[in-house]
Design brief:
By secondary structure, the chain is of the alpha/beta class. The chain has two domains: 11-109 and 222-284, D-Maltodextrin-Binding Protein, domain 2, CATH 3.40.190.10; 115-217, D-Maltodextrin-Binding Protein, domain 2, CATH 3.40.190.10. It is 38% helix and 19% strand. It has helices at 11-15, 43-58, 70-78, 89-94, 145-157, 162-165, 175-184, 194-203, 205-208, 233-244, 250-259, 273-284; strands at residues 30-35, 61-66, 84-86, 100-106, 112-113, 115-120, 136-139, 168-171, 189-193, 211-216, 220-221, 225-227, 263-265. It has a six-stranded mixed sheet with strand order 2-1-3-12-4-13, with helices on both faces. Strands 8-7-9-6-10 form a five-stranded mixed sheet. A two-stranded antiparallel ribbon has the order 5-11. Helix 2 links the parallel strand 1 and strand 2 (61-66). It is globular.
Length: 296
């Protein structure tokens, strides 16, 4: 994800820092916000605008900490090297003792998204997952719900062992990379985040038209904004209220439009019940890690 491509989880992480004009976060001159790559083309320009906007409203320095993988962001948040971050729902349910739910992005007016299984447009005889035998399949990130957890759960439901069923599997380490891999034919099919695919279609229809959706998952809670539980309660409350009101701020509204988001919804643990259930079932069978550990 580290090129001009983004996967939403990081840009939104920035949203967690927004504060109403004229207010300052209590006892904070620096806020460290964890991000992973996102899908805007002008990443540097957007981040500069975002940093300036946040700094003006926070009366504090804002540092965006960008990492290539979700695991790096999770580890730094667990070790309190970050104050807040935009994470995937899968690491959130796995590491919940070390992550406090702050707000949930709203897309098309609702806090939901899906996992998509996509295939190359030339493979016209492939209509569902069972037609992918002996093909090349790519996952996005081992800590991604839409890019790994859900497809792994779906394969389990279908009695598919990916190591035997596919000719080869690999990780792309970014949802945009997954779209590119499938569109170019590097992979025959892959698992991708619906929000990223739809935003990529908005900016690069010439690429997404080379992919075809063959399965859409049930809806899942949108990847959340979280903070470390040790962050001051007053800071947590102020960040949260700012996020919930962001769409009413003219500058905030323009930034949300650039991200293709409607705003933020209040935290709701039930949004992640489906992800937690899949994780527990897969962990019980030894297919994914079953314990939360503090990172070394």
């Amino acid at each position: 994800m580290p090129d001009t491509a983004f996967t939403r989880r990081e840009l939104l992480a920035m949203l967690g820092l927004a504060v109403l004009p004229g207010t300052a976060l209590p006892a904070a001159d620096l806020l460290r916000f964890g991000l992973t790559p996102v899908i805007l083309d002008d990443q540097v320009g957007f981040l500069r605008q975002w940093r300036n906007w946040l700094s003006e409203r926070l009366h504090a320095r804002v540092r965006f900490v960008q990492r290539r993988t979700y695991r790096e962001i999770s580890n730094e948040l667990i070790n309190e090297e970050l104050d807040s971050a935009w994470v995937c729902g899968y690491p959130y349910v796995r590491h919940q003792p070390y992550m406090r739910l702050l707000a949930v992005p709203s897309y098309n007016g609702a806090p939901w998204y899906h996992s998509l299984i996509i295939r190359n447009h030339r493979l016209e005889k492939i209509h569902d997952i069972t037609h992918l035998r002996d093909r090349v399949f790519c996952f996005s990130d081992p800590d991604s719900n839409s890019g790994y957890l859900y497809p792994s759960y779906r394969f389990m439901q279908l009695g598919i062992d990916p190591d035997r069923f596919f000719r080869r599997t690999f990780f792309t380490w970014a949802h945009r990379n997954t779209i590119d891999a499938v569109a170019s034919g590097l992979a025959d099919a892959g698992a991708v985040d619906s929000y990223v695919w739809e935003q990529y279609r908005r900016h690069h229809p010439e690429i997404t038209r080379k992919t075809v959706i063959i399965e859409r998952s049930p809806r899942f809670g949108f990847p959340p904004i979280v903070d470390r539980p040790s962050l001051a309660q007053a800071t947590h409350a102020q960040l949260q209220q700012t996020l919930l009101n962001m769409q009413d701020d003219p500058g905030g509204h323009r930034l949300l439009e650039a991200l293709g988001l409607s705003g933020f919804a209040p935290p709701d643990e039930q949004l992640y019940a489906g992800i937690r259930d899949m994780w527990e079932q897969l962990a019980h069978r030894g297919l994914v890690p079953d314990k939360t550990r503090r990172a070394p």
